[in-house]
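Propose amino acids for all 115 sites.
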């Protein structure tokens, strides 16, 4: 059934001629092809395979795909201020022990714990 449908669509698309630019295809033919493309994409068929079956470019398949039309809407964006990187410190004991890579909060807690 898939091959009959795609074969019929391809013959109709091929009848338009070699030019295939812009508005050469009728709205009805584009709609039928778009519906068929949507079914194939829902089945997991890749864009390249669909393009080959219909004799179209992958770009045309993407433009005629209903999923592509739905993704063109603007969506709200919230800008969040970037946090400044946390400063890391080293603690060196009087005997020469060294602890590196502590945040200021962690270093203060360590010094309190050591007394």
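Proposal:
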């Amino acid at each position: 059934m898939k091959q009959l449908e795609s074969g019929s669509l391809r013959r109709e698309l091929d009848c338009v001629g070699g030019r295939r630019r812009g508005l050469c295809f009728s709205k009805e033919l584009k709609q039928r092809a778009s519906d068929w493309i949507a079914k194939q994409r829902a089945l997991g068929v890749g864009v390249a395979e669909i393009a080959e079956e219909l004799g179209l470019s992958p770009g045309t398949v993407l433009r005629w795909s209903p999923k592509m039309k739905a993704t063109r809407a603007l969506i709200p964006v919230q800008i969040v201020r970037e946090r400044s990187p946390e400063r890391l410190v080293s603690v060196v004991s009087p005997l020469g022990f060294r602890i590196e890579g502590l945040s200021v909060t962690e270093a203060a807690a360590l010094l309190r714990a050591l007394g």
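The chain has a mean pLDDT of 80. The longest strand covers residues 98-103.
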